[in-house]
Amino acid sequence: MQFLIPLFYLAAGIALFLGIQAVLLAVYDYSRKLLGWFAFLCLAAAIYEYSSALYYSALSYEHSVQALHWFTAAVLLCVPASVGFIGTYTHDRHTPWWVLIATINSLVLLVIDWHSDVSMRFIGGAELTHMQLRWGEVVTQLQGTPSFAIRYLHFSALLLVIWAAFRAYFIRVRDRRRFVFLVVYVAIQLLTILHSLAVEYELVQSVKLVALSFTSLVVLMALNIAIDIRGVMAQLGLQSDQLQLEKSFSQILKLGQERLSQVVQQSPSSIHLLERDGSLIQRNLASHQLWSDFARQGEYLFSRAPWDRLGLDLLCKQVLATGKIRHQLIEVGAKYLTGSERSKWIDATIFPITDEFDVVEALAIVSEDVTRQHTIDHALRMVAAESAGDEEFFVEITSQLALLFNAGTAFIGLFHQEDGIDRYTSLALTINGLPERNFTAVCSESFAELGKQEYSSVISSSAYRRFPKDEFLGIHNIEGLIIAPLSTKSGDRLGFIAIMDTLALELIEDVAPIIEIVTHRVSAELQRRDAEVRVRKMAYEDALTGLPNRTMLQERLSDTIQLCEQNLSNAVAYFLDLDHFKTINEALGHEAGDDVLKQTGNRLLAELDDQLFLARIGGDEFVLLEMFDSQEGMDQKIQHRASDIIHILSQPMVLGDRTISLGVSVGVIKIPEHATTEADVMRRGDSTIFRAKNEGRNRCEIYDTSMQASVNERLELERGLKLALESQQLSIYYQPKVGLDGRPIGAEALVRWEHPVLGFISPAVFIPVAEKTGLIHLVGDWMLESIAASIARWESEGVGFTGDISVNISAWLFARPGFIQKLLGTIAEANIPTSSMSVEVTETAVLRDISSTKDKLKMLREAGVAVALDDFGTGYSSLAYLKDLSLDAIKIDQGFVADLHDSQTESLVNSMISIGENMGFDVIAEGVERHDQLDKLKRMGCKVFQGYLFARPMPESEFVAWIRSNR
Ligand code: C2E
Ligand code: CA
Ligand code: CA
Question: Ligand 3 centroid vs 808 CA: distance in angstroms?
Fold first, then answer.
């Protein structure tokens, strides 16, 4: 029985037929490249089958050799044809190269074959043999010793199959159907190759069947192409709208039964006609293109998937009950749909079909694929929605865009510069429906350059060829590309939206406006985000100095405390408070004060380690945060750091044409030793600073637990000061002023507060509090009265005190209208000479209101009350105003005396003394503690001294005793 030979002829015929069909289809412009390769493959396969038939049925040796040559040539033709087709079929963009390699390979083998005696298949000759197949058919073939060339040919074929398998694997996700077809082919091809190897090595007595595997390929692919075409047709057919439908239904009602059935059949919308009881009467062609259901005529439709779960049976009942049309939008899974990989949105409309008496006779379910419209609506709704403008929003936008364009990849890229190079970073990257990790790339020679243009760009195919150096396009095999620029209202480029796919993309008309809306919205969100960042920065930054502010410090502290609690490190907070700042601010104005604060910040930043965190927490208070890896030598380092700070800030500061000198008090809090919450750090820092000031300025104080009690000291002070006046906690100490011979020529009255709980409180601490609360007036009046009374008493008791008691008058007191009258009145009342009292004022007091000051000083001089300028040299003492004021003395600040060993200070003091003398002022040096200081001062011409060297401030009784013995 003849079987195999006819089979070969048949296969050749099929291949030829399909090839011709492919050529015809290609003419219609459908996938021209793919069909071209397919036609070529069909042709090669047809020749292969045909020559196989000739070879196996050859009657003579010559015929057989001739046929074998053709047979081999056909095999060699099949190889590049397969490569070209499979490469195109699986979107391999290196296809041209593979084809070239395969073609060269085939050409070489072809030349070898035509030049070999019998065939390249054999070494030497071969003989014609006959073989009877199992069913009796006799075939002829040549037999000889297999050559290297034939082994190489087998190897090439295997290589081709492996490559095809690899390509199939590559498209497995993106194109499931092509994947399956290709795998089936690879399996068949592999089997036939193995089979023919077995034949070659005479393991099996059979004919080689490789040729037939090509037929399987050709048939499979023809099937695939047919399915593709059906999908395209279906899409074309489904573009009709509701109006048209309703019209056709009104027509249906008018037409007779047969015509009705015809219209239903041809409607482009999917239609299921049902009986009242829900059994299927008929479904039209379009319904097969949309639904993959298997409901049969006469069967109850809603018993089958997917109809059993769409809820349409309920809707049908409603239509039956009301006689009115009903709509429903439903999402239908891909497995219930024809040729779809994704679920679709279907608009289902149920129409009642009535008889002439308006009784519902039947129902029609008309369903239409509205996925596209739905996606657009959804994207628009999302764009319009309020959003938190967070990452999620951007991810959602990109995934919607990908859906909308049916694209595999979409992301938002943001431009920025790094090391002077333009780059972009993805903000939300979606690949194949899933969010991916963001990346950064360089803009130059990349598609991102398109994002800098004014309008959107579309590259429908071969994008990687346009930007060959772009890695992203290369890695992701990008063919089609849409880039929409993102910019601010003023036209600054923020970035772009990129939509890409491994297939060609087109900017379909109905979505073009959406791109525009989306880019607007995304740009607006990006700008809002930027603004938020700026606002946040403002909330965390001190506007004046640009340093972090209190809020930021608190956040940093909370992080630091956490680190410390995990035993990862130790930290120290240095609280800095400028000395004399208030004075400068009040006397020179806020601008000068601001300047001081800025300079202070800059100095600290410039001189200290970059690692340190510096914040300004308000007024003249700064905090420095330092981390320590271990506690070893920590105390020493802290002392070091603190003295650095003091040194840095006590350097003279230039303010316009003045030079001032400041000081700083430093309070140190160790974390976690001293405090483990931010609130504790801040509170204890405050009390440590307070202590530092209390102990004398320009110094550092480390927190100790005894300070715990004084946490609320300042509050306590404010409350306690009034009580102090009433319950006589305030007292007056006297410190003698002596002349060249060491004898007293007067004394300074200094107020003291002995707090019942807090103990001794320095006037340097509570006088500012008194000024702030207004109590300074009461304190001042009390001082004047007590002192005047004491002087009168000494007089009557014959203490023998001569000279003046000088009283410190704070700026507030001095500025009070009627102060002079009060002073003179007190003196008069006590009946003591006006010269027995004098006042010490600071520059702040003098400068506050220079014209009224002049009058006041004149009045005092006329009344015979001497005035000394206190703390001379610490502020911004300007000689210009000194001349105009009726002053009697200047008191050189004790800081200069303490620093006399420094040659610069020495010459400064020297010039102060000579200026004073030239202007006719007495010069008083205060804070004299040692003989060397005294000697130096004397040599410079100073005549009045005050200091511990002679006597400390003493309570009245002690002072009286001291006077008696030093008269
Ligand atoms: P001040 O007017 O410069 O007073 C001199 C300060 O130097 C006093 O401190 C005094 O005890 C201290 N002193 C005197 N000799 C030496 C010395 O040899 N070495 C050192 N290191 N210090 C010395 P005190 O009494 O603590 O007063 C501090 C400041 O408080 C005063 O500075 C003054 O500005 C203010 N003050 C004191 N009593 C009054 C007052 O009754 N009314 C007003 N408005 N302010 C006062
Ligand atoms: Ca004084
Ligand atoms: Ca002083």
Answer: 9
Spacing, Cα 927 to ligand 3 middle (Å): 8
Q: How confident is the model at residue 460 (pLDDT cuts 50, 70, 90)?
A: confident
3, 410, 681 from 139: Cα distances, Å? 10, 60, 102
Ligand 1 atom 25 nearest Cα: 750
- Calculate how far, in angstroms, residue 962's C-alpha sits from the geometric centre of ligand 2: 20
Q: 143: pLDDT confidence band, cut at 50, 70 and 90? A: confident
The 10s digit of each residue's pLDDT in 879-924 is: 666 777 888 999 998 988 998 998 888 988 888 898 888 888 899 9
Give me the long-range contacts of 736-740 (CB less than 8 A, separation at least 24): 736/946, 736/950, 736/951, 736/959, 736/962, 736/963, 736/966, 737/803, 737/806, 737/924, 737/944, 737/945, 737/946, 738/944, 738/945, 738/946, 738/950, 739/943, 739/944, 739/945, 740/938, 740/943
- List of residues 6+ apart from 685 with CB closer than 8 A: 573, 575, 623, 667, 669, 703
Judge residue 817's burial from the number of C-beta atoms within 10 Å of its C-beta, 0-12 exposed, 13-18 middle, 19 or more buried.
exposed
Joined together, the tokens standing for residue 585 give: 């601010």
Residue 767 Cβ inside 6 Å of ligand 1? The answer reads yes
Nearest to 179 by CA among 89, 306, 247: 89
CB 783 near ligand 1, within 6 Å: yes
Residue 593 C-alpha to ligand 1 middle, in angstroms?
25
Element at 768 (helix H, strand E): helix 763-773
Give the CA count within 13 Å in the CB-facing half-sphere of 260: 16
Ligand 1 centre to CA of 724 (Å) is 19
pLDDT surpasses 90 at 107: yes
Q: Which residues pair with 581 in a beta bridge?
A: none
| pLDDT tops 90 at residue 22 | no
Residue 392 Cα distances to 395, 425, 429, 517, 689, angstroms = 5, 16, 11, 18, 48
> Hey, what are 700's tokens?
């550092």
Neighbours of 570 (CB within 10 A): 19
839 lines ligand 1 (CB under 6 A): no
**Cα–Cα distance for residue pair 545/616, rounded to 1 Å:** 8
- d(CA 451, CA 415) in angstroms, rounded, equals 9
For 548, phi then psi, to 5°, come to -55, 150
Q: What is the pLDDT of residues 505-559, one digit of tens each?
A: 765 666 677 788 888 888 888 888 888 777 777 778 888 888 998 888 988 999 8
Q: Is 948 in the pocket of ligand 1 (CB under 6 A)?
A: yes
Report how many helices (DSSP H) and strands (DSSP E) the chain contains, helices first. Answer: 33, 31
Structure confidence at residue 866 (pLDDT):
95
Q: What is the DSSP letter of 446?
A: S
Of 808, 890, 931, the residue with max ligand 1 atoms within 8 A of its CB, to mutate for a pocket test, comes to: 808
Kindly tell me if the per-residue pLDDT of 388 is higher than 70. Answer: no
The total number of residues shown for the chain amounts to 967
Pairing, β 804-809 against β 837-841: parallel
Of the ranges 448-452, 583-587, 880-884, which one carries the lowest mean pLDDT score? 880-884
User: Worst-scoring range by mean pLDDT, 364-378, 506-520, 728-742?
Assistant: 506-520
Place of tokens 């800095």: 576
